[in-house]
Amino acid sequence: MKGGKLLVFSAPSGSGKTTIVRYLLEQPELNLAFSVSATSRPRRVKEKHGEHYYFMSISEFKNHIKKGDFLEWEEVYRDNFYGTLKSEVDRLWAEGKNVIFDIDVVGGLRIKKKFPKETLAVFVKPPSVDELKIRLKKRSTESEDKINMRVAKASVELATAPQFDKIIKNYDLDEALEEARKLVLDFISTPATKSNSDK
Hints:
By secondary structure, the protein is an alpha/beta fold. It has helices at residues 17-25, 58-66, 86-94, 105-114, 129-139, 144-158, 173-188, and strands at 6-10, 32-34, 38-39, 54-55, 70-77, 80-85, 98-102, 119-125, 166-169. β5 (70-77) and β6 form a beta hairpin. Residues 194-199 have low confidence and may be disordered.
């Protein structure tokens, strides 16, 4: 696997990372393409296979694991697997794109470990765990139990923030969007041999 840069955006659910990633994809000067993750979780209303996720059964997902098809994978919740297919990144690199990920913190750090020079790993930090819960409830896509699971997981995920190259505090969305754009532009403009570990 060899190609352009890898931009990893990780955060607890509700932090705003998906909004930031969508904004960055709209900036032509960044030459970004979105890495569609594979998942074994059920498809939600309006989600499309191959656009939002590659939806698989649990047995399909486990078969890909056995064959070594994933760049990284994680059982995020019980029987809810998420992963990045090597073929997906190869496809986007072959198109001459820099690849951007909207991904779980564990998966994000694994990509950084595998491609330390080619990857910029960014952690998106919410104002507070309480604010996260409010944002998740506003989505109206999940049960109270599932929201509580995500909030509990957020505390653990927040502790991983120092392991990332950069931390964006998403207290003001417009400021966070501009900070992310500048970070990505700077990173893709520098040779892959340059260290990007400074916070």
